[in-house]
Amino acid sequence: MTFSRSRAVRSALLATAVVVAVVAAPAAAASTTAEAGSGPRPLLGAVRDGAPPTLLEVVAQRSRSGSSTPVECHDVKITSRANGKLVSAELGYAGADYAMLRARADVQGPWEVFTVCLDRANSTIRSKANGKLVSAELGYAGADYAMLRARADVEGPWERFSIDLSCDNQCVTIRSSTNGKLVSAELGYAGADYAMLRARADVQGPWEEFR
User: Fold this and answer.
1) Which residues belong to the signal peptide in this entry (predicted)?
2) Of 12, 21, 52, 110, which is the most buried if we count CB atoms within 10 A?
3) Angle, vertex CA 121, rays to CA 166 and CA 59, nearest 5
4) 3-state class of 16 per DSSP?
5) CA–CA separation, 135 and 199 (whole Å)
6) Taking the alpha carbons of 210, 169, 202, 122 in that order, is the dihedral positive or negative?
7) Is 200 left (phi over 0), alpha (psi -120 to 50) or beta?
8) What is the pLDDT of residue 46?
């Protein structure tokens, strides 16, 4: 399915999102149990005094420890290595842009905390703020193709990712398990689309590196 949207409207939504972020409490706590067909996913890395570990920290720790636990879930913050901004789930956006992931925040709030369940190519990312799984929107077209949005209630192919160490263990990459593409922070986009996350890259560069 293809969606055409007014970018002027999206810019207006960006302005209102700041207000919503201040006054809105998290919509729901993230579930730590997988959908039907998967085993329980215990939360091992919860937020500590409002400061979760980075995605890089939990992936590196799992690698160092050689953990035999099939699935590990952690509350994390995710930062673009390219622009140094935290990834936010844009819960102030509407329609087909609702809960778009963007690397645009300087300060961590509810929209910048995610529960990541590490399970090789079946890893998932869930927004703590609205309790929804992150999907790669493979039905979108053009510059919105494979946009990441925190909008799914049920885990399916579009909600599965590989999260791997890279950059000599100084960063991680996120790859859609369905289309095989690396997630990029679109730093060439402007306005309300700036630093949108999309699973669209074949080659790793700075925009595909996260902490």
Assistant:
1) 1-29
2) 52
3) 40
4) helix
5) 10
6) negative
7) alpha
8) 47
Read off the pLDDT of residues 197-210 as tens digits, 9 standing for 90 and up: 999 999 999 999 99
What is the C-alpha separation between 124 and 61, in angstroms, rounded?
18
pLDDT in tens, 178-200: 999 999 999 999 999 999 999 99
Please list the alpha-helical segments (H only) found in the chain. 7-23, 55-65
Q: What is the DSSP string of 108-168?
A: --GGG-EEEEEBTBTBEEEETTT-PEEEEETT--GGGTTEEEEEESS--GGG-EEEEEETT
Token pair listed for 157: 């192919």
The pLDDT, as a whole number, for residue 121 is 95
Residue with tokens 């402007």: 190
CA gap 25, 7 in Å, rounded? 27
Q: What is the pLDDT of residue 204?
A: 98
Q: Is the dihedral of CA 119, 125, 128, 132 positive or negative?
A: negative
**Contact indicator for 155, 132 with CB cutoff of 8 Å:** no
C-alpha closest to that of 80 among 113, 108, 60, 104: 104
- List the domains of the chain with CATH numbers: 7-208 (2.80.10.50)
Torsions phi, psi for 156 (to 5 deg) = -140, -170
Neighbouring CB atoms inside 10 A of 156's CB total 11
Total count of residues recorded for the chain? 211
Q: Is 100 left (phi over 0), alpha (psi -120 to 50) or beta?
A: beta
